[in-house]
Amino acid sequence: MPRQLVRLAVVFLVALATGVSFADPSPTPPPRPDLSGRVTDDAGSPVSGAKVIVWTAAVKTGYSTMCPSCYPDCGKSATTAPDGTFTIPSVDPDLKYQLMFVHESFAHKTKGKIDPLAPAQTIALERKPPLPADPAQSLRGRVLDLNGNPIAHAMVQPRMIYWKEPNGKPGGAGGQVKGMDAIAMTDRNGEFVVSYAKLPVTKWELEISARGYAGQYFKEIDQTKAATRLRLGPGATVRGRLLRAGAGVSGVQMLLTHGDRGMEFLGTEKIGTDSEGYFTFVNVPIVDMTPAPEYLGLEKLLGPRNRWWLAASIASLKGNGATKPTPVLVERHDQDIDLGDIEIGPALHIRGRVVTADGKPIPEGSTLSVNPQTSWEPIQRKINPDGTFFIDGLFADDWDINFAIKGYGISRFQPCRQMGIAGALTQSLDDYVVLVDTDSPQQNHGVAGPYPPLQSIDPKHLPQNPGK
Question: Domain-by-domain residue ranges, the chain?
Fold first, then answer.
């Protein structure tokens, strides 16, 4: 026997006699990095004493099975040093983070997609202007839980304000209004202040969210209501399981989209399915169902304001089937809604072509996007130079289709035309023809739903001598 084999045999026999194991040692977990950075003012000078809070987190790849604020690192905080630096110790290296920056002398700010493994970032804050002299230009409020306890670090975002002009004429504006605070954070007593620099405000509309609570939209808020009415609860839980042919499907993103697309739209919640296909949404917002005069008569047309739509993300299924959107009525806090099994079925597609009225080729870089009316998920595809396009992974629904073709708009002869095309998809389409023209001002045909079926352009409107 060769000397090397004899030596190995002796080592093996000794190991058996002494009970030594040859098993691989337990792998040591990867080190958890610190998340560091620096905070300055807009002139580059360091900001000392700013509080930096881990607001939410997200996985770097794939789809998370946890809510954005449910990760253990969320809620960690640090205070900036005299040189403006901060360090949040021991965070998960596989996540990217959204941070909230709070300082009494500076406008609050959020910064997302921060990777703890990337070089430290410098975040600049804008100095707050002094509060307006007129107290009617500011709203001082307090955010409470359902038991009347203050909620610290709640995010308050003004969405709409109303005022009276000096001549008494009413006015208002929404979105990013110049002179209006974009965001505020509550202090340890749940208190906050938001201001509008130009005019006294009669009513505010606020969107408020906090970790561990369901976000909520508040309307008709004045100074009196801001002290007692702004209350957040835990929201509802919506759960289920995604299946294909009876087996759980992992790694798919589920979307839960609020059905009211007006100013009170509460957005889309996103969560991934686990290894067995299960998914759970937590802190789903509760809609204030107090009747509003402007909404009377619309519920029959648009559906109840507390309706949500659940569907598997088109993008995450990658054309391998689709789910029919499921309506979900979210009615009260602590409600646990188990939707049971959600089966992936066959997907629909649209195969079509875009024709220019002047017969010219489609400009390079042209795209189209489709968006369902229930589970709101815009999907974009390229249009080939010859005008052909293909989009799959769709489901039966009312769809909005928009085209981005430089110099062209949807022809006035295209059926069900508004700013784009609105129509119902009930089966796959294999020769869907759309006509675009250089003389096509946008128009709205007033269709609110249900939409008529998607139809191709009547051939009599197509150019007879393309390219000439």
Answer: 35-125, 135-232, 236-343, 348-461
Residue-level pLDDT, tens digit, the chain, 468 residues: 444 444 444 444 444 454 444 455 556 667 899 999 999 999 999 999 999 999 999 999 999 999 999 999 999 999 999 999 999 999 999 999 999 999 999 999 999 999 999 999 999 999 998 999 999 999 999 999 999 999 999 999 999 999 988 888 899 999 889 999 999 999 999 999 999 999 999 999 999 999 999 999 999 999 999 988 999 999 999 999 999 999 999 999 999 999 887 767 888 999 999 999 999 999 999 987 665 555 555 555 567 889 999 999 999 998 899 999 999 999 999 999 999 999 999 999 999 999 999 999 999 999 999 999 888 888 999 999 999 999 999 999 999 999 999 999 999 899 887 668 989 999 999 999 999 998 765 555 445 567 889 999 999 999 876 554
How far is residue 66 from each of residues 57, 63, 251, 313, measured CA to CA in Å?
9, 9, 12, 16
- Cα-based angle 34, 125, 108 (whole degrees, multiple of 5): 85
Q: CA 272 to CA 261: how far, in whole Å?
A: 24
d(CA 458, CA 103) in angstroms, rounded, equals 62
Q: Which CATH class is domain 236-343?
A: mainly beta
Query: Which backbone phi and psi does 317 adopt, to 5 degrees?
Result: -75, -20
Phi and psi at residue 328, to the nearest 5°: -135, 120
How many beta carbons lie within 10 A of that of residue 358, not counting itself?
Answer: 15
17: part of which helix (H) or strand (E)? helix 3-18
Spatial separation of the C-alpha atoms in residues 227 and 216, rounded to whole Å = 16
Maximum Cα–Cα distance for the chain, whole Å? Answer: 108
The CATH code that applies to domain 135-232 is: 2.60.40.1120
Distance of CA 193 to the CA centre of its chain: 26
**Which of the four CATH numbers 2.60.40.1120, 2.60.40.10, 2.70.98.50, 3.90.1150.180 does domain 35-125 have?**
2.60.40.1120
**Which CATH superfamily is 348-461 part of?**
Carboxypeptidase-like, regulatory domain (2.60.40.1120)
The reported pTM is 0.83
Cβ neighbours, 10 Å, residue 350: 21
Q: Can 35-125 and 348-461 be said to share one CATH topology?
A: yes
Tokens of 4: 């090397």
